[in-house]
Specification:
Elements: E1 11-13, E2 16-20, E3 30-36, E4 41-47, E5 51-58, E6 60-65, E7 68-73, E8 77-80, E9 86-89, E10 96-103, E11 111-113
């Protein structure tokens, strides 16, 4: 299966732009690319269903995992286990980009936002 970015319509969520490459497909994981503009924050959340793998491909992201903050740069990864609380923000002046994998696939009904 080939998916071209030009075929995707980005989802807008809390000022994030999310390109979901696996929406509507019957796969064991899901993959999305998230564009995080400067000064944008993803609220604290956790998943009842999925482990999450955030790979930073550009810029810098401040992740808070179980209350512990750290700055991640391009090439860094944050693993978020099912049930683990997390949030992230782009506190810099430039854009940031994340690749996000969910295993099993993303299901909005299984996500909890604080």
């Amino acid at each position: 299966m080939i998916v071209k970015r030009a075929s995707l319509t980005p989802l807008e969520f809390e000022d994030l732009r999310i390109f979901d490459y696996t929406a509507g497909k019957d796969l064991s994981s899901s993959l999305a690319v998230i564009e995080v503009p400067p000064q944008v924050r993803h609220a604290e959340a956790w998943s009842k269903r999925s482990d999450k793998y955030y790979f930073v491909t550009g810029g810098e992201i401040r992740f808070v995992l179980d209350g512990a903050p750290t700055i991640l740069y391009a090439g860094d990864v944050c693993f978020v286990r099912r049930g683990q609380r997390f949030s992230y923000s782009n506190d810099s002046a430039g854009p940031a980009t994340l690749v996000l994998f969910h295993t099993p696939p993303f299901d909005i009904a299984e996500e909890v936002f604080v």
